[in-house]
């Protein structure tokens, strides 16, 4: 692992070997924790399946088939090219799994040229000010204070930059021509960050919990308690962040004195070194973690057989161990809770409740407004014939970055003033993003429930007046269900957040007096059960139980007082739609197909007026269009790109960027071989009336066409790497790796 500095040569193989050995040591230590936690997580998962939790049943439906094969956003932006030190106009799109894909220009996308880059934004921060960025970069090196008047590490030609900053990986620089464009792209990129940060699948009942518990245990072994901001992305990304958290400061202390040049040059060199090391760490982490995971998955059937056979004995053994630990540490834990935690729970809860509840209320208001507007459109304009078009737009509401932005913004004022330092909460961003993800889920659940009920109503063949009354009635039903589910989701979020804040604090307080006593309890665990019962985990469960009753009581009192429209636990909403969940078992609703028959003069797809081949062709044409949830509502200069000139002049000024745009407007795009494609092979001849529509409503691909029409996008594991399906674009070969989560130029 040798590090290369541009214009200064290699720092030597000794530095590389030292870094590789340190990385290997950290990974080995962490993976021991992971193997230990895997057995515990497997036992807890199987026990949960048997015993259940008795949680209240959700009233809203949830979408079982993800809204795949969608393009969330597409448009143009300027990107800074570090190799040429030029700003270039790039055509960019965000597929359904929120990887930012950058093409040379729109023509390159149409002609299926591989993209320039695919960016996974997990762990990144979105900066809208060059001063913010320069401050972060200036603090990245010890003793690196730039003198006034010195040139910054980056110059932006407009007043509207957007910078993707990561503490270890490479940075990405973009700029826009107007503040409106900056706001739009900020909302889109923030949605990408929010989604990619949530990289561990929530339906992973064993691997996910085992990994997060191993991360927590490893950091606690280093006396690092509290929330961790870099628990972002998939497992390999998080593991790379964990290594860099420990390796980075050592690398910085060793290499910073050896960097030469002006401050901005030293900063640029350090960014390149850090990114190079991060990529190498990533590759090593990916290989080591993958090998251990494969070994555990091979051993899982044998472990499951032992658990099924000895479930009762394992539970009895664990309860016996817990009783012994409880008798030993409970008095100390209760005193600590009473003196250091209990007095602060109400204020922490109130700080969480206000912005979170405002956000969920905004979700309700946005949903109400969108459905009401749709109903008015049905009455005044389109009638039933236009319902399919309206419903296609509504079905994407939860994934519309701009329409959801007002909901997400409600979480931004979240502060734990005076409590963050006390409870070692490094940042509230963990709680903000979790609440925002829950808002999006509840919005999608409300929309999907509305879709399902409306689809059932359409089977009765209502008139326009009857349909409008039905829409209003269904809206009221869905809002009642939303209010109940919103209360349940928020109460669970408050409990989890309070535990996430207080438990690390308690463990840190109790460690000096309690942790040394834990080793004597190891002899209470039978050797056959040692993979499923760990003393450290049982100790944490006992500590959790000491504070859990106070947290439950605080949330219960807030519900009793009807604060922020929370329902009491005793309020159980009986399911007024007993067959509703059966309706959700059917195929996804294709609103374009559902309402196409009423809008076509010749009848439905099977009518004699329209040949079947023509209908299929129309479906295929619509599916291939590059579409976006976000519509350009302003009138202004379109960011249309053409191939770059061979010898472009410097683009370091706003004047030149405007010149680039002016040439874009005057230049004619090369003739296309067919409509604007979503990753499908080019057609031999253009179809009449199949011109691309940049602002057309978002459409769903027909079943069975996914492999042919798959747009270029990162893999479905939110990895940020490019994949190609059969008949799609050719595979993309990166200059570094094809793994998840590493940002690379192609």
From TrEMBL:
Keyword Phosphoprotein carried by entry:
yes
Question: Any keyword Amino-acid biosynthesis?
Answer: no
The UniProt record lists the PH domain at: 70-194
Q: Where is the composition biased (Low complexity)?
A: 670-682
Spell out the Pfam families in the cross-references.
Niban2, PH_Niban2
Region span, Disordered: 1-20, 593-612, 669-746
Q: Name one GO cellular component term.
A: adherens junction
Query: Which regions are flagged for Polar residues bias?
Result: 1-11
Subcellular location field = Cell junction, Adherens junction; Cytoplasm, Cytosol; Membrane
Q: Which UniProt keywords apply?
A: Cell junction, Cytoplasm, Lipoprotein, Membrane, Myristate, Phosphoprotein
**What topology does the record note for this protein and the membrane?**
Lipid-anchor
Bias type Basic and acidic residues, positions: 707-716
Q: Which family does it belong to?
A: Belongs to the Niban family.
Supply the name of the protein. Protein Niban 2
Q: Which gene encodes it?
A: NIBAN2
